[in-house]
Amino acid sequence: MKVLSFLQYCCMLNSRDRSFDYQSFFDNVVPKCFITERAFYSQVFKPELITELFEGWELNIIDGIEQIRRIQPFCAIEFYKKYVAYIIVDNCNCTDTTRTFLPRTLDDFISDCQRAGIELIRKEGGE
Which of 35, 41, 52, 72 has the fewest CB atoms within 10 Å, counting from its CB? Predict the structure, then answer.
């Protein structure tokens, strides 16, 4: 399943309604989000979570830099002391590099990937 940010996930649960009822949303949908998915999204981020929770990623350490990469389509996420670099490669050319602060939570990481154009797929049973 494609991974959404926590806010997108909560909004998706209510998207089946044609008439948006904010009171109903906050009374019914938001508590379900917090109960069922809050633990997943609020985990303290660690790079090793990427390979545990998402399909197609592997960990490599090159010259002391942790690099987590996906082969098809090729993406690399490099972790440095103070920042993380999201790299997208198309036809052997680096097409885009996004650098940002290290994520604090798994939801921060998911949102950073979305901004960088990297799609994450949650593993079956990945919690």
Answer: 72
pLDDT at 117: 80
Distance CA 56, CA 117 (A): 16
Whole-number pLDDT of residue 29: 63
Place of tokens 């009374």: 27
Q: What is the 3-state secondary structure of the chain?
A: CECCCHHHHHHHHHCCCCCCCHHHHHHHHHHHHHHHCHHHHCCECCCHHHHHHECCEEEEEECCEEEEEECCCCEEEEECCCEEEEEEEECCEEEEEEEEECCCEHHHHHHHHHHHCCCCEECCCCC
Gyration radius of the chain over CA positions: 16
Q: Which tens digit of pLDDT belongs to each residue from 12-26? A: 665 555 566 666 666
Domain ranges for the chain, please list them.
Answer: 6-41, 48-116
pLDDT (0 to 100) of residue 41: 86
Instruction: Enumerate residue ranges in the chain where pLDDT < 50.
Output: none
